[in-house]
Amino acid sequence: MADLVVGFDLDMTLVDSRPGISAVLEQLNVAHGYRIDADAVVSKLGPPLAEMIAPYVAEEHISHAVEQYRTLYPSIAIASTEPLPGAREALAYVRDAGHRLLVLTGKFESNARLHLDALDFPYDRLVGARWAAGKTEVLREESAAVYIGDHAGDMRSAKDAGAIAVGVPTGGLSAEELRLAGADVVLDSLRSLPDWLRDNL
């Protein structure tokens, strides 16, 4: 069935951005004396950056830290980010099947676009800086049929929007944790997505 909207999360769903994010956080530590635990942060990507660094940065400095992070990100993180297994093929399948490609991420939108463009990933619409109810709102607006992600929040947003929640355990959560969060189906990786879409859409 053509003309359906298929949505994807970005970090740890389409791309492994952990090395770049870690490098930016370490640069912030050096430049500003923060003690951000980069390994801990990249082990649970998904929530907004301000929330993830809150345990390590004084409240009055969080806004500045986020601003500096976003400024440093393009020169440090883009080149080191790689597609996750099956990502390129999954996107190509969706495009070739005549579906619309939505990339819906918590990442600052201009930095997310740099990733997509650097990797030559196709997409019809990109929406950044959305999390939880913000993702649900966009999925409803797009009448998305499917949303694919690696985080419990992705599964909840998909379910709340009436989309099929497809989990991939390529981030910090196991297959069982994704199911408990509401995933309708959990795939081992995006390598399995074209066959699943072919059989279910």
Characterize the structure shown.
The chain is an alpha/beta fold. 46% of the residues lie in helices and 13% in strands. Strands 5-4-1-6-7-8 form a six-stranded parallel β-sheet, with helices on both faces. A two-stranded antiparallel ribbon has the order 2-3.
DSSP, total strands: 8
Order of helices and strands: EEHHHHEHEHEHEHEHEH
Major sheet: order of its strands? Answer: 5-4-1-6-7-8
Structural class: alpha/beta
Assign an overall shape: globular
Query: Sheet bearing the most strands, described?
Result: 6 strands, parallel
Strand content: 5-15%
Provide mean pLDDT, rounded: 96
Q: What are the low-pLDDT stretches, counting only 5+ consecutive residues below 50?
A: none
Helix content: 40-55%
Q: How many angstroms does the end-to-end distance come to?
A: 6 Å
Q: Helical segment tally?
A: 10
Q: Radius of gyration over alpha carbons?
A: 16 Å
